[in-house]
Design brief:
Blueprint (H helix, E strand, L loop, with lengths): L2 H6 L1 H15 L1 E3 H8 L3 H14 L2 E4 L2 E4 H6 L3 H4 L4 H12 L7 E4 L3 H8 L8 E4 L2 H7 L5 E4 L3 E3 L4 E3 L4 H4 L4 E6 L3 E3 L3 E4 L2 H13 E7 L11 E4 L6 E4 L5 H9 L3 E4 L1
Helix pairs in contact: 2-4, 7-8, 8-9
């Protein structure tokens, strides 16, 4: 497309660009270039205009829709999605705990299910960046250590570089992690770079990483990588997981548990 045509179609293109980002939630510049058939420079100029208008937020390599973030279901609503599978996954994870363990609880509704099962476990220490998990355990159960950082309201977690100060001084026996996307090539992915930062940091400091992910996460890629598969020791999922996908995980040395 010529420069003249790009200028002539700018209003229509901006509307299409805004809708693409709103629908995707997060999207990369290269993907927008392909779908709109325009240059990266044009996309970046358009993104600048949309950010000034307050409808999107620029992130490294792409953009996040402010509109879609507001429309995204609240954390409490997410817990009703695949609720049975998540409860079975949490019960399977509970069986991996040993007396004296120091465990990390990530954000996410499946990990929250595990937190609810720990209310009577006084023989472990729980480290978490999840306000919801902390609320479940605040009045009883394990010794509780909270990780501070920037609050991500959507996931109700503390994330970003400030979490490094606490995490680098801790030794974690087991880290129970959640994810939005899981693929053989990209590994674990999520929507928010600050959250990805903290997830990767946790996985670096845990002796054993256990991913709690229902089968709907398999094969999906979100905006930013939040962990490599070579850091994962166990994946606990449900019986609907694609068998070929599970076999490939096993070939990589990852134990797959179908709850």
């Amino acid at each position: 497309m010529s420069v003249a045509n790009e200028k002539q179609l700018a209003p229509d293109r901006l509307a299409r660009l805004r809708e693409l980002i709103r629908q995707s939630g997060v999207i990369r510049v290269d993907a927008l270039c392909r779908q709109l058939a325009v240059s990266p420079a044009t996309v970046r100029r358009d993104l600048d205009q949309l950010e000034q208008a307050g409808t999107i937020r620029r992130v490294h390599g792409g953009a996040v829709s402010v509109e879609s973030r507001l429309e995204e279901p609240l954390f409490d609503n997410k817990t009703s999605i695949a609720a049975r599978e998540k409860h079975r996954i949490a019960e399977a994870a509970l069986g991996l705990l040993s007396s004296g363990d120091t465990v990390y609880l990530d954000g996410g509704s499946t990990v929250l299910e595990l937190a609810r099962l720990l209310c009577d476990r006084t023989n472990i220490t729980v480290v978490t960046n999840s306000l919801r998990a902390a609320t479940e355990l605040a009045g009883r159960g394990p010794r509780l250590i909270l990780i501070g950082g920037e609050l991500r309201r959507l996931s109700q977690t503390a994330v970003g570089p400030l979490t490094r100060h606490a995490l680098e001084g801790l030794h974690l026996d087991k880290a129970f992690m959640g994810t939005i996307g899981l693929t053989l090539k990209e590994g674990l992915t999520t929507t928010e770079p600050s959250e990805a930062f903290t997830k990767e940091l946790v996985m670096e400091h845990a002796r054993e990483v256990i991913l709690l992910a229902d089968s709907s996460k398999a094969g999906k890629v979100s905006f930013v990588r939040s962990g490599s598969l070579d850091k994962v020791h166990t994946v606990i999922t449900d019986t609907r997981i694609n068998r070929k996908f599970a076999r490939e995980l096993t070939k990589k040395g990852i134990k797959v548990v179908r709850a």
